[in-house]
Amino acid sequence: MYILFLGSPIVNISSVAGRTARAGVGVYNATKWGVNAVSEALRQEVHKDNIRVTIIEPGLVDTEIDSQITDPVAKEGIEKRRKAITPLQSEDVAAAIVYAVTQPPRVNVNEILIRPTGQEH
Q1: Could you say which DSSP state residue 9 is in?
Q2: Nearest to 13 by CA among 68, 58, 60
Q3: Annotated catalytic residue 28
Q4: Listed residue (81, 78, 73) closest to 118, CA to CA
Q5: Over residues 99-114, mean pLDDT
Q6: Are the C-beta atoms of residues 51 and 39 closer than 8 Å to each other?
Q7: pLDDT by residue (tens digit) across 21-80?
Q8: What is the pLDDT of residue 7?
Q9: pLDDT on residue 1
Q10: Which pLDDT score, from 0 to 100, does residue 5 have?
Q11: What is the DSSP string of 27-91?
């Protein structure tokens, strides 16, 4: 059940992992694909009430998530990626959210995919 106010924006945080799949992080990929699917279904359900739904899909962000990775192959992969590029900062993701929710009521920014400049995929 959702309790919403007319015109309220809903912002769901997903990940670039919701668009791609990688060995060793399939469950994580599946959860992010699920966020994207639920968000799009919700957007279709509530758009007539002028409720906007946005998915923010960050690429590599400077967080503590690496400490939660238990698969050695996945852990090695993320460590290599972190050394190769400069990750996004939390304020980069926050700026994307602010952009989405401050658009005029007639504008629904459905998705923002935001990656570090050096991130290939």
Answers
A1: E
A2: 58
A3: yes
A4: 81
A5: 95
A6: no
A7: 888 788 989 999 999 999 999 999 999 999 999 999 999 999 887 788 888 887 888 888
A8: 61
A9: 43
A10: 54
A11: HHHHHHHHHHHHHHHHHHHHGGGT-EEEEEEE-SBSSSGGGG---HHHHHHHHHHHHHSPPB-HH
pLDDT (mean) for 66-95: 87
Cβ atoms of 115 and 16 closer than 8 Å: yes
The active-site residue out of 17, 25, 28, 55 is: 28
Q: Distance between CA atoms of 10 and 39, rounded to whole angstroms?
A: 9
Tell whether the torsion through CA atoms of 17, 18, 23 and 26 is positive or negative: positive
Return d(Cα 102, Cα 48) in angstroms, integer: 19
Structure tokens at 106: 């007639």
